[in-house]
């Protein structure tokens, strides 16, 4: 993407180092093919954001997936059978990863129960009416997505249990409300990395399943806790 914007990697790293050390600020414009300009500082900030929001979220997703697959050995075995049928002991192929249905259902169920970002935060810009509430500007709203994901009215009586089967007919049919699943948020601010992360997680999980059997450590104590991420 950055190369398409006409910035060489070396140039970007140099500017980035300078921006971190605070020696240089750049308002130089970088032009995309469509002609809309971003300053180099803005591009660098976007890159930092990608590192910040892309690393811990993804590692959380993979960690909770491993934990769930150790507790639910039947799902670990189903996932392994699917992966071995698709790739045997070969390097997972990018296109075929899209067809791993069981692995996809497992990742969705983990993102439902153990979503990395448990809350969304929004601030009102102007006076608005939200349902029965009349809100002034500058009010901070916390949306506890984790509660929506655990709501028995939406997901059924087994809402708090790990059951990837609920995603067998896709995300829209997994609950009573097609929008109830929102680990990546919804609307215009939806996560820009969501397709990337699903591919990345499938790749990592497939490679682990090809090589290892996972078991839970006897000293493990289940205690999810939100501290920025879960
Ligand atoms: C499991 C992994 C991930 C989860 C659960 C996740 C979740 C989210 C959520 C909920 C938001 C919206 C925040 C809000 O509206 O307040 C968001 C935004 C964003 N995410 Fe992710 N994310 C993940 C991985 C990634 C990755 C890998 C990248 C980039 C490589 C990424 C890049 C971004 C960016 C740039 C935004 C801001 C979009 C904007 O405001 O326009 N995310 N993410």
From TrEMBL:
What are its cofactors?
heme
Q: Does the keyword ATP-binding apply?
A: no
TM annotation in the entry: none
Query: Which PROSITE patterns does the record match to this protein?
Result: CYTOCHROME_P450
Q: Which UniProt keywords apply?
A: Heme, Iron, Membrane, Metal-binding, Monooxygenase, Oxidoreductase, Transmembrane, Transmembrane helix
Q: Which GO terms describe its cellular component?
A: membrane
Which residues take part in binding heme? Answer: 191
Any one Gene Ontology MF annotation carried by this entry is: iron ion binding
Q: What is this protein called?
A: Oxygenase
Family the entry assigns: Belongs to the cytochrome P450 family.
Species for this entry: Lithospermum erythrorhizon
Q: Which Pfam families match?
A: p450
Q: What broad class describes the main subcellular location of this protein?
A: membrane
- Does Signal count among this protein's keywords? no
